Amino acid sequence: MVSDEAVIGCPGVLVIGTRGAAGPGEVLVKIRGGSESFLAWSEEPLPKGTPVLVIESRGTRQVDVIAWIDPIGNPGSDRADGLR
User: What is the pLDDT of residue 25?
Assistant: First the structure.
């Protein structure tokens, strides 16, 4: 399998929720000046619409993700977890 290292660290949004160990979902990732979709795996289930960060590439069009709130995209927040 060929890994896509460029996707690691990119933000995205789940368009199909993940099921944890039971199976992947689908994420739309902002990358290379546009958006691309990948199969998304996570340790715990994450619902559709969850903002995520890609933490690992599993190979061709498959990534590991975690739930993530962009602290820069939320200017009213001074905490990394997005809460005030």
Answer: 98
